[in-house]
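Z., the sequence and structure:
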Amino acid sequence: MLELRPSCEHCNKALPPASAEARICSFECTFCATCVDTVLGNVCPNCGGGFVARPVRPAQDRQGGNFLGRYPASTTVRHRPVDPAAHAAFRASLEDVPPDAR
């Protein structure tokens, strides 16, 4: 079950469960689209993977109790700003490797 983390790990922008701005890697590291595009260059600073849009969990129970009310989003903030210079070097080491091959 995805945690649906509440904010961007870099800039701490709020990313509510229905946010179309949330991006996640395969380890659920969560960043806003702006930080993924402008700071991270689609390279997760924690694992080196790429990012995809985070799915939205339905707010209403449409079938089988699978909805936000039964499975709420996380409230644990993980604010760990990225050092842009260090990340640029890390990103450069992966620039020739597509996200699906990292």
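The chain has one domain: 22-101. The CA atoms of residues 5 and 76 lie 7 Å apart.

Let me know what you think.
H.
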